[in-house]
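Minutes, project check-in
Item: structure for the 102-residue chain
Input as provided by the requester:
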Amino acid sequence: MENKLYVGNLPYSATEDEVKTHFSQAGTVSSVALITDRASGRAKGFGFVEMATDEEAQKAISMLNGQDFMGRVITVNVAKPREERPRNFGDRNRGGGGRNRY
């Protein structure tokens, strides 16, 4: 079991402190990271919570998955490892209305 959790369907207005307080019901919270859009800076409605131990992470899943948080039913499960996505810089086949010269 991992102690890093994915938390989905968060209210856009939620702060890291509010999420930390909510997850503290299940044990010691090591860190909270709410994901924001790079361009606008607005919350995307999901984030990651790291609990101190695997047991506390499992307790958080059991206690909080499917429960109400600030008026929304949140999803809590084990975070999957981040997949490396290829960068498409310089991809000539992306269109864009320009003339392609091959």
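Outcome recorded: The two ends are 51 Å apart (CA to CA).
No further action items on this chain.
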